[in-house]
Each structure stands twice: as C-alpha cells, then as structure tokens.
Write a structure and sequence with these properties.
Low-confidence stretches: 31-36
Helix content: 25-40%
Strand content: 15-25%
Shape: globular
Number of helices: 9
Bound molecules: S-adenosylmethionine
Structural class: alpha/beta
Largest sheet: 8 strands, mixed
Length: 255
C-alpha cells in the first residue's frame, strides 16, 4: 500500500516532534551523531546541523538553539538582511535561523518562524527567550498554507524543509504570495543532480531524513519560475549522498 501525502506529513511531524523532545531532554536530536534528524547517522556530522554555522554565529546563540539545528546549510549567510526588514523562516524548528535573523534586522524589524510541530514551536520559543530576542514570533502552520497576509514579507528563508513538503508547488506559490514585490528568497535545501530519477533519490536516503523528497536542480528552477520568480539560482555547496547536495537556492519575486 502506498503512503498518502497526509501519512507522509504525519511521519515527518512525528520525527521532528521526537527530535525536539530529545533536545529538550538534553539527549540530542533523534539520537543521530550530528544531533540532526535531517540525516541518517553519524557520518552526517559536518553536512547537517550546527557545524554549518561559523563560530561567531554560534556565539550569538544559546547552546540549546545551536544544538537544535537540523538544517543542511546556513540561509542567514546567503541572503543580505537589512535593518527594519520582515523575515520569514519556513519550518523554523528550534528557531536558530529566526533568532539570528531577528538580530540582523534589529529592533525595527521582525522575524517570523512557521512550523507545524508543537514541540518544535515550544523549543524555539524557549530558545528565543534564552537568547533575549523580542522581535521574533513563532507561528503554528504548514508551509503549504502560510499563516501570514499577502505581500507582508521582505525575505523568505528556510533550512532543509522544502524537501520535506508533500506539495512543493503549493509552497513556492505561497512564498510568492507572502513576499512583497522585489522580495527575496535565500533557502538552504537538499537538491538532487538532474541525472537522478525520483526512484534513485529514494534509494539514497529516507523522506523524513531529507533525501528522498528532494527536487532536482532543474525541477527547483522550473518550480520557482512557474511561481513568478526571477534571478533564480540553485547552487550546490556540499555533497550529502551520491548525486545529492546541500544547495543554496536564491530568487527574487518579480516587481
Ligand atoms: C529538518 S528540520 C529543520 C529545522 C530548522 N529549519 C533548522 O535548520 O534547524 C524540519 C522542520 O520543518 C518542519 N516541517 C516539515 N514539514 C513542514 C510543513 N509542511 N509545514 C510546516 N513545518 C514543516 C518540521 O516540524 C521541522 O521542525
């Protein structure tokens, strides 16, 4: 029997709820060596998680927020954030990128995180309190239906989440809806080389481990173009499995 989209999303939610509980209890996310759920084992240290942030950035964070990092890149390092801007992080997890963004945009700006997992939202709120940032807000919701009004955001970031969505065209359309004209995307994600079929991607890792659901480079570009973006780039940064890479995805919403 094949897994439905709803069942797959529930599997993802349960996996990341378990990870948040493990971080809260101090035993590390999911029991993986790197502390990462977006990975399947010890060998993933250095390709997923807190190691992708530089020492200076980690110094800006409470230890628990850094330990809760489950991403495959560092979106705050790939997009310019300016004072006073509104930033939205899709799938904000333990809140690391929202906290760093809140510091970048300063007291006149705002950083939002959206996540569907209650345990992650609670962890992120605790981390934000510990970091002493007050211009950050964590919203419960799914990234296929973002709980923010149209044209309300300057920059959308995300770290290793879009690959987990069971409806990627809906996510890209929603990003276009909430961004202001000229708004920017700076996303880290797992992306496959075009030579790999969806079946071949699935042999390289699990869906909840951020591998099987990855788009290919061409699929990502075509999806962003269809959603109304321009200046699109999808650049590989580090290999996470044969033919699969951590990547930086950038685009601008047409004026
Ligand atoms: C791999 S973790 C990444 C967390 C965070 N971005 C980071 O870098 O540490 C994936 C996160 O995305 C959330 N998530 C996955 N699919 C989602 C969806 N469709 N809508 C909202 N949140 C989702 C999970 O609950 C989890 O917190």
């Amino acid at each position: 029997m094949s897994t439905t989209a709803d069942e797959l999303r529930e599997e993802v939610r349960q996996r990341y709820a378990e990870s948040a509980r493990a971080v809260t209890e101090g035993s590390g996310g999911c029991g993986c060596g790197s502390g990462s759920c977006c990975a399947d084992g010890e060998s993933d240290a250095g390709t997923f998680g807190e190691a992708l942030y530089d020492v200076e950035q980690r110094g800006e964070l409470p230890e628990a927020a850094a330990l809760a990092s489950l991403g495959c890149g560092n979106p705050t390092a790939v997009v310019d954030l300016r004072a006073g801007e509104t930033v939205l992080d899709l799938g904000s997890g333990g809140g690391i990128d929202v906290i760093l963004s809140g510091k970048r945009v300063g007291p006149t700006g705002t950083a939002y995180g959206v996540d569907m997992t209650d345990e992650m939202l609670a962890l992120a709120q605790q981390n934000a309190r510990d970091a002493g940032v007050t211009n950050v807000h964590f919203l419960k919701g799914v990234i296929e239906q973002i709980p923010l009004p149209a044209a309300s955001v300057d920059v959308v970031i995300s770290n290793c989440v879009i690959n987990l969505s069971t409806d990627k065209p809906a996510v890209l359309t929603e990003i276009a809806r909430v961004l202001k004209p000229g708004g920017r995307i700076g996303v880290s994600d797992v992306v496959a080389e075009d030579r790999l079929s969806p079946g071949e991607r699935a042999t390289r890792g699990s869906y909840v481990g951020c591998i099987a659901g990855a788009l290919s480079q061409s699929e990502y570009k075509a999806g962003l173009e269809a959603a109304g973006f321009e200046q699109i780039s999808v650049d590989f940064t580090h290999q996470v499995a044969d033919g699969m890479h951590g990547a930086i995805v950038k685009a601008v919403k047409a004026e």
